[in-house]
Automatic annotation (TrEMBL):
Entry's Gene Ontology molecular function annotations: NAD+ kinase activity
Superkingdom per UniProt: Archaea
GO terms of biological process kind: NADP+ biosynthetic process
Protein name in UniProt: ATP-NAD/AcoX kinase
Record SUPFAM superfamilies: NAD kinase/diacylglycerol kinase-like
Keywords: Kinase, Transferase
Pfam families assigned to the protein according to its UniProt record, in alphabetical order: NAD_kinase, NAD_kinase_C
Amino acid sequence: MIKTIRIGFIVNPIAGMGGRVGLKGTDGEAYYEALRRGAKPVSPIRALEFLNSIRTRNIQIITAPKVMGEDIVRKSRLRDKLFKIINSINQPTTPEDTRRIARQMIEDIDILVFVGGDGTARDILEAVDKKVPVLGVPAGVKMYSAVFATTPRDAAIVIEDFVKGNVEIVEREVLDIDEEAFRRDKLVVKLYGYLLVPVSSGRIQSSKTIYQDFSEEENKIAIARYVIEHMDKDTIYILGPGSTVKTINKLLGIDGTILGVDVIYRGKLIAKDVGERELLDIINKYNKAMIIVSPIGGQGFVFGRGNQQISPEIIRRVGRENILIVSTWRKINSVKVLRVDTGDYEVDAMLKGYWKVLVDYNRFVVKKVV
């Protein structure tokens, strides 16, 4: 007989809001700037998708009040599994709410599930350390840590496997970046510690890997040369984040961003570090557009991690046939498959399948997006 598992459930209600508006995070004052730019909540949608995807009935849910969990549980198909609500929260919510509620629930739960990004993972780490297994439902902008399921639906399957005892509990890294440095276009990643994570085959992402050596840089230059030589003069090019893609800017002598989304036309920068709204305006002005993106090293995500400005609507408008994936040999060989997690199930389905990936000057490999 399968025993009933108690799940602690905490939602960071502002996680991920900065992504589509080009803020690369929502920590601190960035939250208010995200609101000013018209950002919409992301994590409640992801949290509800997670809960509604759980098929097992052998669970009870202990959650935070209101927007930090209770509201979403009551909207879900698991509303009858709500067992207990922990304490109270501030308005607006704070990281201390996350830490305090996590500490209060750990004695009563078998596993803690949080919905957020790397910043939320750090709060959970500080609160619970290795006292209980922890699973992250991806809802942030970056998510470099190795504690997240690949998608909310995969998180639900991990929980089902956890209930059945079909997982391995493994120490996984909690990583985060300096968001202030990130917004200044500098990538500073730090290891904060380890959480115990239930690992189910292929459903937990790896931590981000950063590659940097001389041969890697030569490889990026070769890729950029090929892209530039084959650019169409009537097409706008939407360049995703990352040093592989942004080597194109470097060879063109363009002062773009490394970690944001830039747009070039006829070899010139026409928009720098843009959000979804600006991209839609630009696409409306031009007849043809192409998206150039590179997967995250060690994880394989092409869309849905760090480039949410290139939203499902942007992808639909541009079309699958006008997306180019580029990667160095070393990065592409570090992943078995590529992944997408745009937050839109239909767009994810459209993007799945086999892709040609540009890995050197006029050299391609075929990789599957799952």
